[in-house]
Amino acid sequence: MAAPRAQHPFTASSHERTKLFREKVARNLMLVAALALIVPVLAIIVYLFYKASPVLSFSYIIDDPGPMGKSGGIWLPLMGTFYLVLTSLFIVAPIGILAGIYLNEYAPDNWLTRAIGMAVTSLAGVPSIVHAMFGVGAFVAFMKMGESLIAAACTIAVMTIPVIVTATREALAAVPMSFREACWNMGATKWQTTRTIVLPNSVSGILTGVILEVSRAAGETAPILFTGAAASVAINTSSLDRKLVPYDLDDKFMALSYHLYMVADKIAGMPEEMKFGVAAVLIALILSINSVSIALRSWLRSRKKW
Amino acid sequence: MADGKTSSIRALGSRLLDRAEPLIKGVIYVSGWSSILFVAAIFFFIFKEAAPVLSSVDWGSFFFENRWIPNPADENKAPSYGAAGIIYGTFAITVVSMLIAMPLGLAAAVYISEFATGKTKEILKILVELLAAIPSIIWGFIGLVIMSPIIQWVFGVEVGVNLFNASLMVAFMAIPLIVSISEDSLRAVPDSYREAALALGASRWEMIYRVLFPAAKNGLLAAAMLGVGRAVGETMAVWMASGGTEQFGLLFDRVKAMTATIASEMKDTAHGDEHYQMLFVIGIVLLIICVIINVLSDLVIKGVKKKHS
User: Fold this and answer.
1) Looking at domain B91-308, does it have CATH number 1.10.10.10?
2) Which of A90, B19, B38, B74 is the 20 to 30 A CA-CA neighbour of A127?
3) For residue B145, what is the nearest residue in chain A, using CA coordinates?
4) What pLDDT score does B1 carry?
């Protein structure tokens, strides 16, 4: 009979072992939660492209939709989304960037600035369908734009102001104060400093915000429901300039997001691959725009000198 | 020579830009204040469109009766606007989606912020960001075309577009927001708190729930509030995946939310008729709920930043 081995002084006690066991369980549960977000979504996206593969081709992109979208391609909706995004960008980019400059460079620390900050937060929090109603009341009816590309673009622009303001503000705030102080000491005014020192050093950060706005605007459906999106348009695209610029500012237009809603939900007897085709193109568009923004940001971080 | 010419043009350009400083300053100030103007305009126009009917709305019936019949089949009957079923729909989708999104989102945030390191952490953060970019129409499509048959098959129910389907889609839309805000607030807890807890012999898990959660509780609260705001205001996914019947439905019954009601009925109204105005009344309710939630959570987040800085 050997004597019981003496307890090694550094052996984990049962209490410590329970603690470590619990930590392991918690850690793995959380890993499972993180994976539960990502794996099903990846699977769904793969499935989407698999189902869409029969229609995905170059001619699918450049052909006009057939009757009720049951056949043909998605050129007109694609162009509608493109011009919607472009028009909204023309409206929101100057306002948003200048507002960001105001908030970071000019605004004094007082109640008005806090109120502006709160207004930006509120704008971001207003539901998209309420933005749509605002668009109907303000742009379609009050300003008499009617249901049109310009009314929809204005609605989207108001909705996406917070995206650009926030991104601009953060990009400007990342420029060290010493840069500005050095410039002021040379006798430059505030505007000269902003123009020659602050903006050149933050332009890529502002660009990330602009790209995010593009992705938001391209995917939104609710705000364009009653402000100008149409299920179909009668446009003859046989001439090249009509093909490239199918819509005038006061035309109703087709958009990818709204087209997806129509083919997915509204029309009986829609071939499956036509539904999945639109969804696949839209999601590929949005994810690639966002990937560009992410890549730009990480490239920016890697070459930052301060 | 050409070089000298361009540089003189540039000099002229910058002199012009310098001269324009008072003008540009004015434009910058106006743009800065414009956000306030836009919020005011949103309130003004939503109230303006609803105004003619506001004085005659039967608020008791609006909030407590489930009789939403804007176009009665019998022409002699007056239309009735009892929105209780619709308000219930929004409430139910919000509660169920938060029951799914909060635990998942918080757990994912803790994993990303406290356990994951290096490349894993980077990749997870990028994936969550891409998840946030997926637009609501895509979630609606997934709910309607992909999830609906799956729900019918797994749970053996007759309708696949129901409260559960809509809540699941909304949960996936709200999770990236919850993850990023929770992660921010966990990161805002100073490392000295972590070091102190570990030095006292706590395991990492004990440190997380005994030290980090209490220290970050305001930020986590803000994350939950923003998630609720997202769920209340979500339109396309809720519209397409919820079935669209105004009733006090259970988990696998069709329901109808406020946002979906506006989206589906607006096109059937004539500009300025009573039905149109009642939809704007629903819009007012939505607007007020969402703005309050967002401003409150913003204050909570700002409070957190002040405390730790």
Assistant:
1) no
2) A90
3) A264
4) 45
